[in-house]
Specification:
The longest helix is centred in the first third of the chain and has 15 residues, at 2-16. A hairpin with a 2-residue loop joins strand 1 and strand 2 (38-40). The chain has one domain (21-118): Cupredoxins -  blue copper proteins (Immunoglobulin-like). Residues 2-27 have low confidence and may be disordered. It starts with a helix and ends with a strand. It is built from 1 helix and 8 strands, in the order αββββββββ. It has a 4-stranded mixed sheet with strand order 2-1-4-6, with no helix packed on it. Strands 3-8-7-5 form a 4-stranded mixed sheet, with no helix packed on it. It has 119 residues and is mainly β. 13% of the residues lie in helices and 39% in strands.
């Protein structure tokens, strides 16, 4: 009986101790929020071989997109998206990938821009 309780406590702790993927400082985020003129987190580090999803917030007043500064992405951007839309990319190669919204940022990293490091 005690062994069963101990296993249940350890299992619950394992679930509770996982990093929050919406936390701006967490490693291995799988989701990046897009709000008016912001990517959150704007700089993130994730593990290789996973999908990253950009979520276009429900309160966006403007149209946004994810446009790649460089990298092996086809197409080179998400296309313009509206509230509630998502855009998902699989990252199977280690590297640093810069992106921006072509309406509100630049490839030089100013304005609405972000960087994703895959390791």
């Amino acid at each position: 009986m005690r062994a069963g309780v101990l296993i249940a406590v350890v299992a619950l702790c394992g679930l509770a101790c996982q990093p929050d993927p919406t936390d701006q400082g967490s490693m291995n985020s799988t989701e990046i929020a897009i709000s008016d003129d912001d990517f959150t987190p704007a700089v993130d580090t994730v593990a290789v071989n996973q999908n990253i999803r950009w979520v276009f917030g429900s309160t966006n007043a403007d149209t946004h997109n994810v446009t790649w500064d460089s990298g092996p992405f086809t197409p080179t951007n998400s296309g313009d998206k509206i509230n509630g839309s998502t855009y998902t990319v699989y990252f199977g190669t280690v590297g640093t990938y810069a992106y921006h919204c072509s309406h509100h940022g630049t490839a030089a990293g100013s304005g609405m821009a972000g960087t994703l490091t895959v390791q």
